[in-house]
Amino acid sequence: MRLQYPSSIRIICLPCTGKVDLIHILRSFEKGADGVYVVGCMEGSCQFTTGNLRARKRVEQARTILAAIGIGGDRVQMFNLASSEAPRFVEIAEEMTRKILALGPNPIKTARKKMAA
Amino acid sequence: MIVAKQKPIDEIIEGLKNADRILVAGCNECVTVCESGGKKEVAVLASALRMYFMNHGKEVKIDEITLERQCDHEYLEELRKAIEQYDVVLSLACGVGVQFLAEKYMRTPVLPGVDTCFMGVTEQRGVWTERCQGCGQCMLARTGGICPVSRCAKRLFNGPCGGSTRGKCEIDKDLECGWQLIINRLKELGKLDDYELLIPIKDWSKERAGGPRKIVREDVR
What we know:
The complex is a heterodimer. Helix content of chain A is about 45%, strand content about 10%. By secondary structure, chain A is mainly alpha-helical. Chain A has one domain. In chain A, strands 1-2 form a two-stranded parallel sheet. In chain A, helix 1 packs across helix 2 (about 50-70). Chain B has 2 domains: about 1-120, Response regulator (Rossmann fold, 3-Layer(aba) Sandwich); about 135-210, no CATH class. Chain B has helices at about 10-15, 30-35, 40-55, 75, 95-105, 150, 180-190; strands spanning about 1-5, 20-25, 60-65, 90, 110, 115-125, 125-130, 170, 170-175. In chain B, the strands form 3 sheets. A 4-stranded parallel β-sheet of chain B has the order 3-2-4-5, with helices on both faces. Chain B has a 3-stranded antiparallel β-sheet with strand order 1-6-7. In chain B, strands 8-9 form a two-stranded antiparallel sheet. Classes of the chains: A mainly alpha, B alpha/beta. At the A-B interface, helix 1 and helix 4 of A face helix 1 and helix 3 of B.
């Protein structure tokens, strides 16, 4: 299909979203990511039964922690789609990019720059 | 195992706000199993704290370590050389570990990162329930292996109170009545006659009522 999606997104491939740990999401923000979204298979069609359901819980945990420390829980989100849904993949990428642009940069990145100056 | 629950992050932050060098110390035993203070939880909390302080324009050194146990001298010794580098240690061990660490290193403040709750079991992932209160005089042999001290809200020893309804306790409709569980188990064991035997008054001096407890075994000292 050769569809285009925003170039600001960096894809990290995993065998299953069940591999995503809470610490992976937090470290992304610590390193300066403005947002993170996890794209898993449709609920009920995980090859490993519950990988995508576990990922959703970890995303929720990350949202709670990021909200509590003032980074913003809305910067993390979970999406589900089938591997054949390339147009939906692009929609999600664009939706998330719009959302993060509206939220502004990761405050950690700004604070780090200020401290270094 | 000892079951603990991580403290709310704002309470943890409040205790650490004046520190510039923090060590987050986990424990590889019970708190790892109940997912409140093991290596993973240490990493997550340390990461969250680093981001919080950075976001508030404060550069704080936050290191992580997870000891095999915090209730044994030999593992706490691993901190001896490093501990003076820190303004505070945030221990994610149970209350036992926090105290033993504090007793051993008198000059470094040690703060608890978890609320220690009870001795219990993992019923399923994310669900832990109490099973033992360490009363010092186990009576499970008389009660079908179900403990009236920890499972009965009133710690009754000779049958349920009047608040037991359809097998549930009066303090919570979802809580099993400890004595109903005992009776069911005695029935299964074919030992319901034991229910008629009176259990004598318990010696509570062996429980916490007798003050802090101690066991000395000369044969293994």
